[in-house]
Amino acid sequence: MNRTRLDRLLGGIDTDGYLLDASQDDANQLYLSGFTGPDPFLTLYADGEVHVLVSGLEYGRARSEAAADTVERHADYDYEYGGREDRYDMYARFVREKGVESVSVPPRGPVGTADALRERGIEVEVDGEDVLGEVRAVKTDEEIEAIREAQRANEAAMRAAESLLVEAEIAGDGDADDTIEPETLLYRGEPLTSERVAEEIEVALLRRGCALDETIVAGGAQAADPHDRGSGPLRANEPIIVDVFPRSKATKYHADMTRTFCVGEPDPAAREWYDLTERALEAALEAVEPGATGEEVHAAACEVYEAAGEPTFRTDPETETGFIHSTGHGIGLDVHESPRLASGAGELEPGHVVTVEPGLYDPAVGGVRLEDLVVVTEDGHENLTEYPLEFVVD
Amino acid sequence: MNRTRLDRLLGGIDTDGYLLDASQDDANQLYLSGFTGPDPFLTLYADGEVHVLVSGLEYGRARSEAAADTVERHADYDYEYGGREDRYDMYARFVREKGVESVSVPPRGPVGTADALRERGIEVEVDGEDVLGEVRAVKTDEEIEAIREAQRANEAAMRAAESLLVEAEIAGDGDADDTIEPETLLYRGEPLTSERVAEEIEVALLRRGCALDETIVAGGAQAADPHDRGSGPLRANEPIIVDVFPRSKATKYHADMTRTFCVGEPDPAAREWYDLTERALEAALEAVEPGATGEEVHAAACEVYEAAGEPTFRTDPETETGFIHSTGHGIGLDVHESPRLASGAGELEPGHVVTVEPGLYDPAVGGVRLEDLVVVTEDGHENLTEYPLEFVVD
Fold first, then answer.
1. CA B25, CA B36: separation in Å to the nearest integer?
2. Is residue A153 within 8 Å of residue A246, measured between CB atoms?
3. What is the DSSP string of B205-241?
4. B141-383, CATH topology level
5. Do B128 and A57 lie within an 8 Å CB cutoff?
6. Which residues are in the Creatinase N-terminal domain (chains A, B) (predicted)?
7. In this complex, which of A38, A107, A206 lies closest to B202 when CB atoms are compared?
8. Given an 8 Å threshold on Cβ–Cβ distance, is B207 in contact with A214?
């Protein structure tokens, strides 16, 4: 945690304190408390100190694990297993005993707690700016190391996925029966599916202490929808997007990388898209440095595509083909966080960790996306990604 | 989804509608919308109909996937990538166009949205009763099948864990060097750790389409803390708790099972605890039937322990050893949901799916817990667990 930045940004809020009621699933909570509590608990920042309130069941672990200045338990407020109103009474006392009469809460903080504190005379304001997200956006060296480590695991997973593709055979007309179409990829005699490749990615990550909720392994028309996770048999001669964003179980930090592969012979349109996307990636990466805006990095990618006549949201806000998403996003405890690399996005600072991921999409061609992970440094950026860019694998 | 039950319970609320602003990570949202949206979206229940509002990016998938009566997209309200206030304007219009002037929201719904709707003249009330959780508690046959299927995967994972323990050797004085203590379990020459067993469980689950966030593999004093996930080398001659609660990736429903194993010779105290816990499990299972209360099922387990002189929360609310948790919990889209098997818990109904998991804990002895998964039927219950109860494995 960057305590100086935290004190500067949270010190600037209009209320007496900043209050979180969330479990470790909330990145702000995990960051501010430093505690991996599985159930919602309170963390209050006030007067430069971080205070955590947990149940008796979590107290021992919270005391040893939390980065907070004080850790209290429910029993300190004579609350054991009372009802909801008793619980809110305890929350109000916890807040008041820190000299706090007004708190800021994130927009997605729980309305039940906010209303209950208001009923008990504590002013609750919604922090529409996500101040804690802004604190988290700039990483310490330790956080960058955690992301780098997750990225190493990610590369092992990508190698596992690529190996399946490399080993795959292409079903010919002769092999084809009623169930297997020609050009289907076969792995050990069975059609190679998106699900099978995703499974291999997950196992490789598990073996390296990482987990993930979802992976994208999408070929053909599926790859033309950037949100499609992919399903069913993969085919030769068309681009296959593999996008992996694991989280380290130990540090809770994420990595993120995308490669696009083709087994066999891509058609000329797909080949051109790949080359364009590789140039868009290079152009955007080159633009990443402190002082540059996220909008400028996005523009660098867009310009490569636009010069080639491909639509982007800049040339056509309604387009459903071409470059139809932003160039990247911050990453850390959340897989998507501040800053953005998009129209309207602000200045990059040293310590920002962002993905750079241009791509082209059209159901008629499929999809191509390439994504590296970089950290903004004092004089430019460092690319945390160590994985080659190679389209055709066989 | 049990539509009759939904209409009956949601029809009974005091406001014009029930509003969710959440992603698929929220079980109520997943249940009511039937849509696996990765980002927060709105679902409104009003006048017996379910309405979903998603971004353009999710619209196609939501239309084909959602169980809702209507699916709308942001563009239907002329909203594209506007600011926060524009977004809230859209939300207010979405609600009002359904003839709704007041909504109920769950206690953990986002305060930002609640406040914004209030500013726009829509009354927002917090539903402290978690009506949707009560709807979800009673499962349809399809939901029960999904849980049963996840439980089959869970049993495969438990077998994988048990196999590692069966194969393990016990380090003797002769083997012990500076780093390996006598009685440490060795697997292929290396100390067998909690982490290694958990990894095997996760891989087995992945191979069967399930995922999990956490697993408990805890031996010795670690097992005496029901929330400790376990870490480091496992040892012979002491109880090892293995508690696995996976989620099916396809259906999103959970399973849950705990076994306690011992490699070598348990001491008499641990052996007695195991036998007692097996009897507590049997007694509690026998009590599970429609019309019985969760309190009665809990009492059945407590009575076995209390008769043997072991403390429970009923005999000593302050105890830190003995049976120090409730007997079980409902399970479904959430791993912990309604109903509870605990003091004060209400009547069981056919379709409730609950865990039954008595246990004993004391750092001096360790921990023992046994957990089966059952569904309440018209005339009793069906045990969904097919895994033997066997303490000593070798």
1. 8
2. yes
3. HHTTTEE-S-EEEEEGGGGGSTT----SB-BTTS-EE
4. Creatine Amidinohydrolase (3.90.230)
5. no
6. 6-137
7. A206
8. no
Pick the CATH number of B3-137 from 3.40.350.10, 3.30.70.980, 3.30.420.40, 3.40.30.10: 3.40.350.10
The shortest C-alpha distance from B267 to chain A (Å) reads 27
ipTM: 0.90
Place of tokens 């380090």: B171
Nearest chain B Cα distance for residue A202, angstroms? 8
Report the SS3 class of residue A138: strand
A61 CB neighbours in chain B (<8 A) are: 227-228
Strands (E), B110-182: 123-126, 169-170
User: Could you report the per-residue pLDDT of B140-197, keeping only the tens digit for each?
Assistant: 999 999 999 999 999 999 999 999 999 999 998 666 566 788 899 999 999 999 999 9
Residue A109's closest chain B neighbor by CA? B110
Asked if B247 and B212 count as a contact pair (C-beta separation under 8 A), the reply is yes
CA distance B165 to B234: 9
Cβ separation A126–B111 shorter than 8 A: yes
pLDDT digits (tens, 9 = 90+) for A61-76: 899 999 999 999 999 9
| 3-state secondary structure at position A323 | strand
Query: Which residue type sits at A20?
Result: L
**What gap in Å lies between CA A53 and CA A37, rounded to an integer?**
11
